[in-house]
Amino acid sequence: MADHYEVLGVSRDASPEDIKKAYRRLARELHPDVNPGEDAAERFKLVTHAYDVLSDPEQRRRYDMGGAGAFGGGFTGEGFGGFGDIFETFFGGAGTRQGRPRSRRERGQDALVRITLQLGDVIFGVHRDIEVDTAVLCETCQGSCCQPGTQPVTCDICGGSGHVQRTVRSLLGNVVTSQPCGACQGYGTVIPYPCATCQGQGRVRSRRTVSIDIPAGVETGLRLQLPGSGEVGPGGGPNGDLYLEITVANHEIFSRDGDDLLATLEVSMSDAILGTSTTFEALDGPVELEIRPGIQAGDVITVKGRGITPLRGTTRGDLRVGVHVVTPSRLDAKERALIEEFAKRTKAPPPKLAEFHQGLFARLRDRFRQSA
Q: 78-103 as b/e, with b when 16 or more CB fall inside 10 Å?
């Protein structure tokens, strides 16, 4: 049989570290995965067996004395260093890492609820009680997943670790892997008597009422987050969050422009000429409006502080009222005569083209039509 020192290429007084370095260099060169030749495979066996003997102080002593026991067992392929695992030889013996057992308590999922508000609701904000179909804590077991009076027991298969180890033989030696225990699903415990109400889940489906204070100034598409108001987690775990997606319904009379409210006021021709006052019902109560004499179509009357309270602020927007002068389309003989007399007295200029511009009233009207 070849001399072990010659096989490794080291002197007989080589230190254990020199022997280990020599073996690593040769193993990388001759390993079947790197060098598939038959000669390399035979040399790899010799190198491995030589290292097996010389890396063990007792076997090396017996080998140096010429004892047959130094060759006992021969090459078995059991690995490196009692041949050992190749990973241990190359990388210093990193052990199999096991994670902790899984917890039955997990965070619940978030929930999304869509809610429709009226335009008047967003002026000052509104309180709502909404019904949510979600998972709630099981009242029978209070999230323990067990029948009352019982509790989980340690898994006999994994001993409570939640993992089991398996040894797989390969060309690289014995590889130890860790996998979640199939008996307890990685929890480390089993429940011999699951709760009959929740089937061992710690939660049940139910409808519950959630009270919500919706702030002023919200608008369509906005999502409000209510932390901890979502569904309870498995095993009585913490609640997820509840999200409210807001839709603000269109109004027949009023529309919105930021924090301002927009409306259109129809004024008769005579009132526009002479001026008048009127009262109308806004979203938050009556509004008194003064119409000055000679007001023009498209003029805007602003009522301060009668708009919407902003989402992050306290100063309300304004109510802007666009004036639409209504011209009568049918006149009797007496009315027509009066208008003709009026025209003669005022000597109004004939119609003419004017510079085109889109006034504020037209923009308000367009917005109102688009939102309707």
A: ebbbebbbbbbbbeeeeeeeeeebbe
Q: Which residue has the higher pLDDT, 98 or 288?
A: 288
Question: In terms of pLDDT, which residue wins out, 349 or 363?
Answer: 349
Residue among 126, 192, 123 at smallest CA distance from 154: 192
pTM of the model: 0.60
Contacts of 12 by beta carbon, 8 Å cutoff, 6+ apart: 5, 64
Q: Are strands 242-248 and 111-117 parallel, antiparallel or unpaired?
A: parallel
The residue segments making up the domain with residue 293 are 255-371
DSSP letter string, 246-276: EEEPP-SS-EEETTEEEEEEEEEHHHHHH-E
- The total domain count for the chain is 3
**pLDDT at position 78, please?**
36
> What burial letters (b/e) apply to 271-289, b meaning 16+ CB within 10 Å?
bbeeebeeeeebbeeebeb
Q: Are residues 305 and 199 in the same domain?
A: no
Q: What is the pLDDT of residues 53-90, one digit of tens each?
A: 888 888 888 888 764 444 443 333 333 333 334 443 34
In the chain, the amino acid numbered 230 is: G
